[in-house]
Amino acid sequence: MSMNHSRRHALKIGALGSSLCLSQFLRANAIQKQPDSERSAILVFLGGGPSHQDTFDLKPQAPAEYRGQFRPIQTAASGIQICEHLPKLAQRADQYALIRGISHSLADHGLGTRYLMTGNLPTPVVNYPMYGSVVSREFPSAEDVPSFVSIDRPVEGPGYLGAEYGPLSTGEKPRYGQPFRVRGITLDGTMTIDKYQSRTQLLQDLDSAFAGYEELDDSVRGFDRFSDQAYQIISSPRARNAFDLTLEADREVDRFGRHEFGQSMLLTTRLVEAGVRFVTVLLEGWDTHRDNFNTLGRDLLPNLDQSLSALFDRLREKGLIESTSVLVTGEFGRTPKVNKNSGRDHWARAMCSLMAGGDVEPGQVIGGTDNKAAGPIGDGFSPDDLAASFFANIGIDPQKEYEANVGRPITLIRNGSPITGLLR
After folding, report:
1. How far apart, in Å, are the Cα atoms of 210 and each of 22, 23, 203, 213, 239?
2. Is residue 420 part of a domain?
3. pLDDT tens digits for 352-373?
4. Beta strand segments in 16-78, E
5. 421 within a domain of the structure (yes/no)
6. Alpha carbons 263 and 267: distance in angstroms, whole number
7. What is the DSSP letter of 375?
8. Tally of CA atoms within 13 A in the half-sphere of 183 that contains its CB
9. What digits encode the pLDDT tens for the residues 128-177?
């Protein structure tokens, strides 16, 4: 009997008898090191390009057509001001660091996102992995919870690390009052394994998954490795409970907010508490070419203010802030001058990001921009520097080398280094 046939036969017996699931087999047989760090990380991605001069880098002395409509307010960190529509984050400015004067040249959503989600300038030669894929490889979680979750969609891919290090993408954001679904499975207590997948279909999937498994390419191996993750969630109490927001008290739901972003951030904290190593959560809508100030002031900024503040508070209350690295960023900033539609357009020469948790030295601003927020003072920082700082804070050497299919080792962050003074 061949090894592949024996493997499929053993899985058939388990499926019919001992209820061994595919994910347990894959994890038990995967060649990967055991986690040597208890750190986790969260990427809050503000998709669309948030206006830096209307959020965390206001210019109140600039001419009106540059400074916009928002006023700065004082924060809990001496000498630091942020937007008036972020009062809760202003009260917590001693818990995070602001990095101003981040600069690059890719004022395109797709390319800019790829740059900011990987820390490497996009190139047709090398497909770089997003942050969560690196963490998933370096610090895999326990076998009954996923290592890397992307709430809603994956945004970017695992690159040269291979599809098996891609995220479990939930397929949608949680909504208050509705049972949350992960890849179409409703976690409301009514779903059973039999309803999810019949035994016959399971056996067919196993035959497909393990027919010449060793010879499969990355994309197929990634599918085989993770196609059962929805099954894993409903069969693992710890994973299922982590995704079940109905277990939260009303006061906690209200603290995070009953909007999609609030519920997504609440889910993020639950996943980290359950042992997930990396969570990406999206707050989109920042592409404000029109009606910038109403869009920000009415919805985006209040929602970000409420939910990110709640995230910081809960991580601190649960004793997780020291072991969880948080990065909040978009793909670029927006034009210094307000356009004729009361909006701001794409602008990559200046942007800002926020980091917290782990070894971040909080309560400070590092870097800066000129008097119109048009460009950095001095050399500024690159997305590569930001990524190197994020990895260093997680506990991963940004100069680590990986083998890839380009014929040479690839340095994790080629051209960046941790920002001086940001980490303790």
Report:
1. 10, 12, 11, 5, 25
2. no
3. 999 999 999 999 999 999 999 9
4. 40-45, 72-74
5. no
6. 6
7. S
8. 16
9. 999 999 999 999 998 888 999 999 888 889 999 998 899 988 888 888 87
Q: Are residues 249 and 111 in the same domain?
A: yes
Q: How confident is the model at residue 15 (pLDDT cuts 50, 70, 90)?
A: very low
Shared domain check, 249 and 312:
yes
User: 71's torsion region: left (phi>0), alpha (psi -120 to 50) or beta?
Assistant: beta
Residue keyed to tokens 């067919």: 204
DSSP assignment of 204-227, as one string?
HHHHHHHTTGGG--HHHHHHHHHT
Please determine, for residue 183, whether its predicted confidence score (pLDDT) is greater than 70.
no
Q: Which residues touch 202 (CB under 8 Å, ≥6 apart)? A: 15, 22
Nearest to 320 by CA among 37, 38, 36, 34: 38
Query: Which residue type does 208 have?
Result: S
Host H or E run for residue 16: none
- The count of structural domains within the chain is 2
Phi, psi at residue 223, to the nearest 5°? Answer: -65, -45
Token pair listed for 335: 């034009």
Answer for the pair 300, 346: CB distance below 8 angstroms, yes or no. no
Total-model pTM: 0.84
What is the DSSP code (8-state) at residue 164? G
Domain encompassing residue 226? 1-31+190-237
The Cα–Cα gap between 352 and 127 comes to 25
pLDDT of residue 404: 80
Residue with tokens 């894993």: 232
The identity of residue 51, as a single letter, is S
**Measuring CA to CA, how many Å separate 147 from each of 274, 319, 332, 360?**
10, 20, 28, 23
Rounded to the nearest 10°, the torsion over CA 46, 284, 171, 155 is: -50
- The pLDDT tens digits for 231-252 are 666 667 888 888 889 999 999 9
365 and 98 Cβ atoms separated by less than 8 Å:
yes
